Amino acid sequence: MDQTAKRIIFSGQVQGIGFRFTAHRIAGHHQLAGFVRNLPDGNVEMLVQGKPEDINRCIYEIKIAFAGCVRQTQIEDKPPNPKYTDFRITL
Question: Which of 11, 24, 32, 82 is a Cys-bridge partner for 50, taking CB atoms 3.0 to 4.6 Å apart?
Fold first, then answer.
């Protein structure tokens, strides 16, 4: 199976609006592993791994769901980590 991983930083009005719960639902729908968490600077960090097309769809769906809130998205390739077997909301 072709696995890849990406670290995404979502900036804008992304805390206090159900962002993490929606990201969790969308990532689960695409059977991705990793985590989503709020950062102290007001951004949200997400690490996802799985099939590249599923990751791309997940990011797209999150951007659509929060189109009025996400101002910037930074995406960085990461090596897949076998410790992530499911998707979680972390602190």
Answer: 32
